[in-house]
Amino acid sequence: MSDRPPLSQEPSTQPFDPAGAGWRVRDDEPGLMTLVGPLWQHAGGEDPRFGFVAEEKHLNRRGVVHGGMLMAFADQALGLTAREVKGGLPQATIQLDTQFIAPVCIGEFVEVTPQAVRSTRSILFMRGTLVVGERTVASAQGIWKVLKEG
Question: Most exposed of 52, 84, 104, 149 (fewest Cβ within 10 Å)?
Answer without folding.
Answer: 149
